[in-house]
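Pilot study result, target chain (299 residues):
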Amino acid sequence: MTVSRKINKAFLAIEQAEGAGARVRRSIGTPKLRNFSPFLMLDHAKVNPGAGFPDHPHRGQETITYLLKGAIDHEDFAGNTGTLFPGDLQFMTAGRGIMHAEMPNFDYGDNEGLQLWVDLPKALKDCEPRYRDLRSSEIPVVKVDDDKVTIKVISGQSHGVDSVKELAYTPVWMLDIEIKPGGKVNQALPIGWNAFAYVLAGGAKFGVGSNQQAVSQYHNVVFEQEGDEVNIEVPSDAKENARLILIAGLPLDQKVVQYGPFVVTSQDEVYQALMDYQTHSNGFERAKGWESKIGKSIA
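Predicted structure:
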């Protein structure tokens, strides 16, 4: 017998400035929801020409970038470069240290995307940095409820369909779900994992019975940990489809100490990260004198 997860809270992601002239709606990583293990931050960014995320470091976390519109270029101090297009994802493990730039390519129109920061287990925080790209064409798609619900299985599984591969060290499920008016879906989730849904468009009802709650665009829905599925539906009289990103992850039993782009487990490690970055050591050797080509576009 399945148990539907109740909603812990739902709140609007307020737009704010980030990077160099970018505007983001941040839901995780704010006073409303901080360190929802293993999740550290969720940004929904819409970037205008002349703005972006030029050269900056990371340590101790993984980032998952999901492009919704336009194109975004990336470049790092190890010589890795590439471009994401709509529906593409990049999973980056910062590990012991990375310095990179992420810049919208406006040759392809308006730019919009999501970026999720995921904590790394303490034993892996000193690993070598790595990237895994997942192209839109590689993502399995499943349709349910007489094709009224379309689910892109980015990571994890849905209705008997598995994702292509494991893309992060920390176990994470990520599903892009679109529901037409009158559609409903019961999505199983691993027991004991933390889970949330971010509503990209339209509105939907989450939960069942007296615990059901209507949630609108740009809201983050945080679920209780108890239960093994989430229930989502869109009323038949809705004016538009709902689109949401449903994400679940294995909680990590460790302290989180974050200082900007450095995510460690103690204050001493923060000081060490700052020292390593400033002295170009212990993972940041290649940062010395490095400047990205793409970051110079807004210099």
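One observation from the pilot: The longest helix spans residues 267-279. A full batch analysis is planned for the follow-on phase.
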